[in-house]
Amino acid sequence: AVGLVAATGDMVNDIKIGTPVAVMCFGAYAEFTT
Questions:
Q1: 16-25: buried (b, 16+ CB within 10 Å) or exposed (e) per residue?
Q2: What pLDDT shows up at residue 34?
Q3: What is the CA radius of gyration of the chain?
Q4: Could you tell me if 5 and 13 are in contact, meaning their C-beta atoms sit under 8 angstroms apart?
Q5: How many CB atoms lie within 10 A of CB 5?
Q6: DSSP strand E in the chain: where?
């Protein structure tokens, strides 16, 4: 799945909202993944 970061946690400093991302895992077909 590919998309943009929609939200981050308080302790996340190196990934910003709107950053392009890609993930290959179980559930990658979902609209949001954790």
A1: eeeeeeeeee
A2: 65
A3: 10
A4: no
A5: 13
A6: 2-4, 20-22
Q: Look at residue 30 and tell me whether its pLDDT is greater than 80.
A: no
Distance of alpha carbon 14 from alpha carbon 25, whole angstroms: 21
- The tens digit of pLDDT for each residue in 1-27 reads 788 999 999 999 999 999 999 878 776
Tokens of 16: 């910003």
Residue type at 6? A
**Angle, alpha carbons 32-26-22 (nearest 5°):** 55
pTM for the predicted model, two decimal places:
0.61
